[in-house]
Batch of 2 targets.
Target 1
Amino acid sequence: MAGGPPKIDEFHPHPVKEQLPGVDFCLNSSPPWPEAIILGFQHFLVMLGTTVFIPTLLVPLMGGGNVEKAQVIETLLFVAGINTLLQTWVGTRLPVVMGGSYAFIIPAISASHHRRFYRYEFNPHQRFKQTMRAVQGALIVASAVQILLGFIGFVRIFARFLSPLGAIPLVTLTGLGLYALGFPNLARCIELGLPTLVIVVFLSQYVPYMIGSKRQVFDRFAVLVSVALVWGFAEILTAAGAYKNKSPLTQISCRTDRSGLISAAPWIRVPYPFQWGGPTFNGGDAFAMAAAALVALVESMGVFIAASRYSSATLPPPSVLTRGVGWQGIGTLLNGIFGAGIGSTASVENAGLLGLTRVGSRRVIQISAAFMLFFSVLGKFGAILASIPLPIFAALYCVLFAYVASAGLSFLQFCNLNSFRTKFILGFSLFMGLSVPQYFFEYLITSGHGPVNTGSTPFNNVMQVIFSSAATVAIMVAFFLDCTHGFRDGSTRLDSGRHWWGRFRYFDADTRSAEFYSLPYNMNRFFPSY
């Protein structure tokens, strides 16, 4: 009988990793101080895009000019610094930047168009102040949603039922759901946006392999280098008069002297509570803002999970997620008190930057928060950086949002991809998460109102806000299907990957949770981890 040694299969699947390997500096470690400061400034630079874009959109609708716009940007930057420090010290303790949320734009626009402000039509400054006071009141009320869901523990209950299969659509569409902010905005000034994108990809992905160096220099500072080069190029084009005869939209997108911030910003100004006056309260505004707070909460959970992956930490236990959401609510409350005009959320682009740089250090993010506070007070210096054309930021988003999406896809390793149940839940939730918001957006553009058009404007806004969020729609579909479809079949637990995350459902079940997420100064006694 012819025989021989048994044939050995040389191919093996990649091993499952609860913590992402290849991260140079994890959550609790830090680069040397000079490098950490530069990386912190880079994180500050990345979050500037959203910080400038949202007030640029909202303030003119409220009746404000360049002076008011500069003050709102400074205020949003100031509270973002405070909220980031709170989140990294006593919240999730993950390396996340807490900035402005796009989810609050629809309620803010609706409030600014309310007929009760028509009487200030010939006094734009007074109209701005009255509108901002109304938005402040709505934000203060809406913050209670995040505070209660977080600190009372409803988020903890939700997170205990969340499996890797449910987390994949949540995290993936937290990144992919913002695709409209990427190339469409980049293309508004293609001669600036496209070079930025090419330089970032070339420096971060190709140069390290070409030079064969183990020192992570080019990929770690690719964003800073690309922004500096293209911003300088934009200054040259502006000074040379390249956009002199272009359309107003092209000039706003491409020129570096059209933001109006440098001349409007004061040299030194410290934002203070109720700077626009005492808040006013309206039930309809608060109702719509509460829906936006819920959406921001969901999207922040996606960012928290992605940030834990890129900082080489374990999955945040439910008690940590609920603690982070509670402090996010405190952040939204501060936004309302200071008059930032928008609520707080975890920054998607900064979570992506963790993956690009492979530096998931908490200290780096805290340094970036210090830059936020510094430049919010020294207005002229912050205004110079805020004059960077938005297509440059859009080019960065194409890479950074993609990293967050890929963090969600990385959880596929925990699921049984040979299961038809898994395939259905995964594909259906991702498809609906993209398709439903697209329908709501197109309907709004063509009809001037959303598909839900009842006699109640606040209810219409609530529906528009919730179903315009890709991550929110995806997690609603995936979570419901994962908890109900085939729940009596014992194999579904293994197919969804629940057994891999079982040890992280309780804070004390894995020693690594205390290593990454314990609060300083023995503060855990105030925030029970169970």
Target 2
Amino acid sequence: MKVLAITLWVLLFFILTNTKFVVCVGICRESEQRALESLKKEVDDPSDLLSSWVVGKDCCEWEGVVCNNLTRHVIELHIISDWEESSYVRINSLEWLPSLLSLEHLEMRYVDLSNATNWLQVINMLPSLVDLSLSNCELNHIQPLLHHNFSSLETLDLYGNNFNSPVPNWVFNLASLVSLNLSYSNFTGPFPDGPVNLTSLTSFQASYNSFNCLLPRWLFDLSNLEYIDLSSSGLEGAIPSKSENITKLKNLDLSHNMLSGKLPNLIGKLKKLEYLDLSDNLFDGEVSELFNAKNGSYKLEILNLGENDLSEEIPDCWMNWPNLTVLILRDNNLIGGIPRSMKVLSNLRSLDFRRNRLNGPFPSSLGNCTKLHKIDLAENEFVGKLPSWLGLRFPTLIVLSLRSNKFNGELPQELCHLKDLQILDLANNAFVGVIPRCIGNFSAMVKGKKELEDLELNYSLYLGVLRESAMVMTKGNMYQYDTILALFTSMDMSSNYFSGDIPISLTRLEGLRSFNFSKNNLTGGIPNGIGDMKALESVDLSENQLYGQIPQSFSSLFTLSYLNLSDNNLSGMIPLSTQLQSFDPTSFQGNKLCGLPLLVNCSSGGKTPNHEYEEDENDKDEVDWFYISMAIGFALSFWGVCGSLLFKRSWRHAYFRFLDRSWEMLLAKAPIC
């Protein structure tokens, strides 16, 4: 009996395992196989992206095709071209697509669908579609639909196309839609006034379009929204002051629009908000409007209110924002000092208050913000000396910009402890004394790149990354660096009252790309070792009292593209090199220099040559030397021959015997008359 039972169990196990095996290795449905094979035959595939699509082979094994394990229906189709390729996969028609009736996920990225004019009607025939992604597919039109078949659609991604038309109304009536991305697609026209049926929507991205309309109020009534990005979309109007529904919002980006009015205290009530960017708009009034709510945004990490018209003082209530990592209030009309409550922002990594009217001494409240990577207080009205703790409290500081304030006094030696400093801008203040001899200790300027991980220059967002940036004066202009900030190094101490010579330790900064010590009272010579700074692209030492010659090592700076040594007491010849002779003469004017590119000839005692007669005089010199050399050559040749015959008897007898024989031979050959 036991043997029979065991036999039955083994038989049952064999049947079950083999049945499962048969199900797992079942082939692709015939109609769907034919549909995909027809696509393979018609597609223009210069990069051979569909090389695994071998006709006759089970389509479920093709790359980018996913089948249901039980039914063997195609449920996912992914065709993604390499965006770095010069030509994308081109599909001229989607007529084969309705054969994939069970398709749930359709993803085509960087696929040229410009000739598939009926793409929307064809896709509308897929009843089970859950995710539709057609980003960067060169679509140029989107048709209105009287009846859509997208009742199951959760993701719609049309990023990076060129529709040049309003968003059709059916898009705003997809009740199951969770994520909608319309960014960079050149949509125009206003949003619908409402009502809309987007009750499930959690993410709405429509940045970099040309809506040119009022900010839709219904947007703030969608109770499930967590992410809004409508930056750079031509929006006007004000943010609603009241809304009881949008309590789940984590990310709000309305930057680079024309929104106006006061900052609504509605935003201060969003407890889950982590990222807020309202920069580059027309908001006015006080920043304190944002903080009037009793329950502050305790989770906020990134706050950008820059480039507006905000005024009055910065409110002293930052204890409610302990998680803040990035704070940007630049380009406003803020006054007063830095609030003491900012000392609680121990997680702060980036502080940008550039171009306001803030005043007072260097803020002591920043002394506790020891994780700072960037401090930008440029173009304000701060006064006083820099505290010595500035160089000791910020071990990972990368950017320090204090230009165009009223700071004074000598620079503290402790400043040289900022090992990771890449951008140092102290220009246009009232600093005095000598430039610290320890400036060669800036390790990041020696190596030319950050020792920290590059990721520390970025800040993670809900759906992306915010890159750190810095404004840098180099090559005579102001530039903003972000993507290559980790690779750039600069030092600007121009327009102060520094005296003494240029520290020799400067030449140790072999990774420094730009330095500007112009408009000071520096004396002495330019360090000879400047040629060791192989990464230099910009040098400005103008309007000082430097003397001596330009170091010959300048000629080895092959990356140098900007140079200004004007208005000093430099003398001598400008070194010869491809770079130096290519600069404008104004780069050397106001000195006692000679040689190209100046018109001062070094052999004329510093006088400018008269070019009207220069060519004739040169020609005359060449003729005189020709005749002199010819006369000397004749004299040497004549006396070389005659002198040897005169003083050497054997040579003289041999020479005359040679002449006699030659004369006799000549007479013998002459005809007798």
